[in-house]
Amino acid sequence: MSDTTGEPRDRSTWGAITTTHRLTAGHRSSVAAATALTLAGSALGLAQPLVAKNVVDTGGRGGAFWPLLAVLAALFVAEAVTGAVGRFVLERMGEGVVRQLRHGLVARLLRLEMRAYDEHRGGDLIARVTADTTLLREVVSQALVDLVTGVLVAAGAIALMVWIDPLLLLLVALTVATAAVVVTSLLKGIRAASERMQNSLGALAADLERALGALPMVRVHRAEEREAERIGRRVESAYTAGVRTAKLASVMSPAVELAVQGSFLLVLVIGGLRVDGSATSLGDLVAFLLYASYLVLPLSSVFRAVGLMQRGMGAYQRIEQALSLPAEPTEPVKPSERPSSPARPRWTAPEATAAAQAPDGTPALALHDVHFGYDPDRPVLRGLTFTVPRRGQVALVGRSGAGKSTVFALVARFYEPDSGVLLFDGRPATGLSRAACRARIAVVDQDTHVVHGTLRDNIAYAVPDAADADVRRVVELAQLEGVVSRLRGGLSGVLGERGATLSAGERQRVALARALLARPSLLLLDEPTSHLDAINESALTTVMKDVTQECAVLVIAHRLSTVQHADRIVVLDHGRAVASGVHRDLLSTSPAYHALATHQMLRHPGTVPPG
After folding, report:
1. Disulfide check for 301: which of 146, 160, 462, 571 has CB 3.0–4.6 Å away?
2. Which residues form the ABC transporter domain (predicted)?
3. Cα 438 to the chain's mean position, in Å?
């Protein structure tokens, strides 16, 4: 059987051991120290029955056994202290392994190709960082060392039992072997059930995130019970898998305990008969019984460690799948990749920046015969060609599904064209790193993103060290003074989760301020006026006229009132540019644009002048 990456899965116990050993690669010194401490504690424990034997034999002969009792007490205390220190080292090592895994997962998930997010649910990916790594921590902090030390301590106890009475050991071995057969038959089932449980927990997290992320919609449509039922099915699935895991584990533990207790009773009965027959001494029988009882802990730890490893491998399988998902490269922006125009210290008067930047005629953005489809069999863009000059505003218009938002996704390098060329400042995008392309742009998306934090944190998200004067400048440009005055704390006022304390229009203006502060050479606006009233739309139009003196602006809008004053309008239809020009000319020359304008006027009379 193979995982989603095509690599064969090794479900054997040895495969689980080697995987666990590989996970601790950067913590071998801690593993060695913990193993040494655990073995030292176990050795102190193994010495105790021998001392107890001497106490019994010495007391039976009427000798002084008080010094031996003092030695026995010292051994007991030393074993407890050594074991406690060893356990702390193990737990710290386990936390270190999980920290490393979580860092790797977070870094990977934040850089996945957008197609990976299209195929995997966010809540499930989050569960791999939280729930799966927590289960894996138990494996690396306990299972490996418990397995090693359990085997070695059991071997030591068995060796001493051979030395005391080989016949009694044979009885113990037969009962333990029976338990081992039972445990081995249960391990595969435990791992499979654990995988199902972890997958169910991931699906549970994804469905819960889905419901909480759209909670207003859920409540307005009175869908709480339906969502609770949907999520409840995930809960039941996790419960069923968890119960099966518990059922198998509950059979495994008593099998080990019964085997050890059965062997203990056999030793007690048969050993007692051998003492009566003078085949062995009472001290020997006491020592053997102590070793037989002492064998319970290492054997139980060995079987428990193997079972825990099999459970943990189900979680690790999901972590590996996440780490193997395709990610964007993390190359930095090279000096040769930076925009050719000199950087502007901050937003200043248009005349100053215009004088500082002499355009050379090279477009800020150009698409030549670009083809693309999210599904190769269903193309969205079919040979799209247009350019965006270094100054001014270009608008993309067209019916829903014409490919407008897809253009933005390609410009942001979220996806790569299937064919054709995308140029930034005359340079092919494929010759630039993604970071270099994104350093040139800022985006105000239709789905405005506001993160939990202060208003200033949201505005300065792209430029965390921005000067206060620059922040105030974009606040004025985006008409956010009212929001600043309303919030307790002003710019330091905390916004709710997903910007819940802001209106839709205010969230859009926050996104606009964030984009302007980044001082892009190309500003992408996706429906910038969709949540604005007429007054604010007019104010934004004035702002955009100033911005077009600083950089190129590419805007998507269904409201033609937003784009009618654009320097150029590109009309998209079924993934192609079918017309290009200014509003007045397109009304008479482009049937597609005329149909859009007519429909807009029918819905909103007076919105679009007749030309």
Report:
1. 146
2. 365-599
3. 23
Separation between Cα atoms, residue 122 and residue 213, nearest integer Å: 11
Distance, in Å, from the CA atom of 447 to the CA atom of 253, rounded to the nearest integer, reads: 53
Rounded CA separation 147/479 (Å): 65
Please state, as a whole number, how many other Cβ atoms lie within 10 Å of the Cβ of residue 550: 21
Of 462, 489, 519, the residue at which a domain comes to its end is 519
pLDDT for 249-302, tens place per residue?
766 666 666 666 666 666 666 666 666 555 566 666 666 677 666 666 676 777
> HSE-up of 239 (CA within 13 Å, CB side)?
6
Q: What is the pTM of this model?
A: 0.66
The answer to whether the CB of 299 falls within 8 A of the CB of 175 is no
Into how many domains does the chain fold?
2
Distance CA 30, CA 88 (A): 10
Q: What's the rounded Cα separation, in Å, for the pair 364 and 453?
A: 33
Tell me whether residue 433 is in a domain: no
- Looking at residue 84, its amino acid is A
Q: Residue 166's domain spans which residues? A: 13-323
Q: Residue type for 351, please? A: E
Strands (E), 457-559: 494-495, 522-526, 552-556
Tokens 């050479």 belong to: 521
Residue 30 vs residues 102, 309, 534: alpha-carbon distances, Å = 19, 19, 66
Cα–Cα distances in angstroms (integers) from residue 351 to residues 300, 357, 477, in the given order: 80, 10, 17
Measured CA to CA in angstroms, residue 122 lies from 73, 110, 395 at distances of: 56, 11, 33
On whether the CB atoms of residues 130 and 315 are closer than 8 A, the answer is: no
Residues 149 and 292 in one domain: yes
Q: What is the CATH number of the domain that holds 451?
A: 3.40.50.300
Strands 453-454 and 494-495: antiparallel
Using an 8 Å Cβ cutoff, are 526 and 408 in contact? yes
Closest CA to 256 of 191, 182, 309: 182
**In 366-497, alpha helices (H):** 404-411, 434-438, 455-459, 468-477, 481-486
Q: Which residues of the chain have pLDDT under 50?
A: 1-8, 341-359, 601-611
**552 in Cβ contact with 522 (< 8 Å):** yes
Neighbouring CB atoms inside 10 A of 238's CB total: 19
Q: How far, in Å, CA of 312 to CA of 307, rounded?
A: 9
**Last residue of one domain, picked from the residues 500, 519, 538:** 519
